[in-house]
Amino acid sequence: MSWTDERVETLKKMWGEGQSASQIAKELGGVTRNAVIGKVHRLGLSNRTTTAKTTPEKKAAPAKPAARTKAAEPRVEPKVEAKPVSPEPTRPIPIRKAIIPAGQPLPPQPSANEISPEAMASVREVEKTAKKLTLMQLTERTCKWPIGDPATEEFWFCGLDTKAGKPYCEAHVGVAFQPMSSRRERRR
DNA sequence: CCCTGATTCGC
DNA sequence: GCGAATCAGG
């Protein structure tokens, strides 16, 4: 696969939308996320979020390549940051301490009377062993069932392995997806 | 371990 | 220019 105008366009679009490199790679097909990232950099549209690296520079030589024949590289790096020091007086840094006012928005926690006793039991059990993942750690294979109150520190996601394709683990699938019949049964 | 982007460097 | 290997962080 090569970077046709069309593919590059898709890349730009998705990257702009904040899609991850792997997602873009999957969408395009025929390329890895590395390829996508490499292209992104070459296109010069890299920065955006993430890990602010602190001057990498020194890296151990890769072990893969048999040998680096040309060793003597004029890789001189004065690294004299002659950047004019911007006098930054005591800037009133507005620290956004503001945070969720603990109130209305609660995740869709089904009311107890709508869940079968069995499911309820398994959920209770599972939540004891939940991985307590953060939002960032959620993937297509981790249970996305929210546990706790988002307005407090007592909040995380189940994070257990999903039940094949489903967004939740087996236990949570049990309370998330219920047959209409059983629901109607218990209802009222 | 999963994921993310960043960088290096042989090709 | 390309992207695998590698690194670094969450």
Give a written overview of the molecule.
- The protein is mostly helical and 188 residues long.
- Among the domains are: 5-43; 110-187, no CATH class.
- The chain contains six helices and two strands.
- A two-stranded antiparallel sheet has the order 1-2.
- The longest helix has 12 residues, at 5-16.
- It binds a DNA duplex (11 and 10 nucleotides) through helix 3.
Q: Top keywords for this entry?
A:
single chain, 188 residues, mainly alpha, two-stranded antiparallel sheet, 2 strands, DNA-binding, GcrA cell cycle regulator, GcrA
Q: Helix-strand pattern, N to C?
A: HHHHEEHH
Compute the number of helices. 6
Radius of gyration: 25 Å
Quote the average pLDDT. Answer: 65
Please outline the major beta sheet.
2 strands, antiparallel
Secondary structure class reads: mainly alpha
Question: Helix share of residues?
Answer: 25-40%
Ends: how far apart? Answer: 58 Å
Widest sheet, order of strands: 1-2
**Which overall shape is indicated by the principal axes computed on the Cα atoms?**
elongated
Query: What's the count of strands?
Result: 2
Low-confidence stretches: 49-101, 103-107
As an assembly, this protein is single chain
What is the percentage of strand-forming residues? under 5%
Protein name: GcrA cell cycle regulator
InterPro entries: GcrA
Region (Disordered): 42-93
Biased composition (Basic and acidic residues): 70-82
